[in-house]
Q: What sequence folds into this?
């Protein structure tokens, strides 16, 4: 599966987030408590 774009609005600690993703490996890095696991969780929620 290829995810080309991720958009979040009022989801957990994000008021608004828009990410355009390229093919290949994408790494999401940041300090603790910044919501890094939110992206995969959001993908699972939207597929339901």
A:
């Amino acid at each position: 599966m290829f995810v080309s774009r991720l958009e979040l609005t009022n989801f957990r600690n994000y008021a608004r987030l828009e990410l355009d993703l390229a093919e290949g490996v994408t790494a999401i890095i940041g300090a603790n408590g910044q919501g890094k696991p939110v992206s995969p969780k959001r993908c699972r929620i939207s597929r339901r």
User: Anything to note?
Assistant: The CA atoms of residues 7 and 15 lie 11 Å apart. The chain has one domain: 1-23+34-48. The mean pLDDT is 75.
